[in-house]
Amino acid sequence: MNKLITVGRQFGSGGRELGRRLADELGLLYCDNEIITEIAKQTNLSEGYVNLVLEQKPGHLYPITTGHSFYNIINPVPDQAQSVYAAQEKIIRDTASGGGCVIVGRCADFILRDMDPLRIFVYADAESRVRRCLERVDRDEAKLSEKEMLKKINAVDRNRRKYYEFYTGAEWGNPENYDILINTSGKDIKSLVPAVAKLVSD
Amino acid sequence: MNKLITVGRQFGSGGRELGRRLADELGLLYCDNEIITEIAKQTNLSEGYVNLVLEQKPGHLYPITTGHSFYNIINPVPDQAQSVYAAQEKIIRDTASGGGCVIVGRCADFILRDMDPLRIFVYADAESRVRRCLERVDRDEAKLSEKEMLKKINAVDRNRRKYYEFYTGAEWGNPENYDILINTSGKDIKSLVPAVAKLVSD
Predict the structure, then answer these.
(1) Residue of chain B whose Cα is closest to the Cα of A200
(2) Measured between beta carbons, which residues in chain A are less than 8 angstroms from residue B121?
(3) Residue B125 contacts A where some CB pair is shorter than 8 Å
(4) Considering only CA atoms, which of A95, A128, A113 is closest in space to residue A10?
């Protein structure tokens, strides 16, 4: 059984839920936001800023510690993004070396490529993603219309694509970068898990 | 359980073997070349010509019965290709209506779209496809070099892509047209079958 599983996913496709349930089913560690917490610790940056760095291409970022006025002196932007990325890479590799785990997003498929992980990509049509996102909105969050939600989904995915392509040089969601791609349109994630678990454990 | 399964595949990816084994595993009818035989019967064309029509875009075909000299008079080429395609469509729909089946290629995913088949696409990297093709060459066939085999594979897939896109208006191998995509690079097809069967039967 391949004990390293990476899950790339479109926003709203249920990829995160699939990853979590898969980890439960197979008794593997599930890694997601704890990676952010760990990066923040190692880099002395806030979790919010780490998140921001990891959602955008380095070229678009400004350092929160130095501010714009220092930009022309030492151009620290790419360095800071690179150090966040380096910390993330180390944490992901350490986690993967420690035993089996499921890692969602974060270019883990690329970072762990020499460890031959099973690389899953989860996607769905726009209608299903909008519905899934509208259903899971927190009560405290402003309620978006379907159109606004679709705009948000597309914006998040645009950043994921740019980030993935910037760091890996490969195309996000292109079948050749994955072992299996799963369309969750109109599907219940829970019901997909046993079959995906079998695919992993055979 | 979804009893209608369509399998699109890159040449040399093992998609046909996967389809056949899946049909065996699930006790479903397997449809492949028998469709050609049936089309030939219904259209009074040779199986070889039917095969040719079904591997190319209609615009590239010349009718074997009338020859080039009649081309400008009645332009029968698209009609003949269309009648082959219509016969194929009817046979695929009749087969699908008769109970469960696995149909490999032939735009079956598109033809049966209102019957909600499980649409699988099988692909692999070039190296794996060349190796698979070289291993399965008939003893009577001329032995191709790896380079020649890759050229043949690319030519076949170019035609499959054109044909699929001409008739369906959709992109061949694009994840959004399938439910699950499976990368068979370096994989033993037989070992994938139980998990894919579970995905279908859940």
Answers:
(1) B195
(2) 175
(3) yes
(4) A128
Q: Which of A183, A191, A195 sits opposite B178 (nearest CB)?
A: A183
Who contacts A108 (Cβ-Cβ below 8 Å, separation ≥6)? A6, A92, A96, A117
Residues of B in contact with A173 (CB under 8 A): 175
DSSP B124-142: --HHHHHHHHHHH--TTSP
Cβ(B74)–Cβ(B22) below 8 Å:
no
Subunit contact A199:B199, Cβ cutoff 8 A = yes
Interchain contact A123–B (C-beta under 8 A): yes
3-state DSSP call for residue B58? helix
Q: In what order do the strands lie in the sheet with B118-123?
A: A29-31, A101-104, A4-9, A118-123, A180-183, B180-183, B118-123, B4-9, B101-104, B29-31
Q: Which chain A residues have a beta carbon less than 8 Å from that of B202?
A: 191-192, 194-195
pLDDT digits (tens, 9 = 90+) for A12-54: 999 999 999 999 999 999 988 888 888 888 888 888 888 887 7
User: Do B183 and A180 count as a contact with CB atoms less than 8 A apart?
Assistant: yes
How much is the ipTM here? 0.84
- Pick the closest to residue A116 from B188, B187, B12 (CA basis): B187
Q: Which of residues 127-186 of B touch A (CB under 8 A)?
A: 173, 175-176, 178-183
Whole-number Å distance between alpha carbons of B26 and B193: 10
Residue A128 CA from chain centroid, whole number: 19
Please give the Cα distance from A16 to A21 (Å, whole number): 9
Cβ atoms < 10 Å from Cβ of B139: 5
User: How many residues would you count in chain A?
Assistant: 202
Beta bridge partners of B181: A181, B121
pLDDT of B164-199, one tens digit each?
988 889 999 999 999 999 999 999 999 999 988 888
What 8-state DSSP symbol labels residue A106? T
CB A198 within 8 Å of CB A23: no
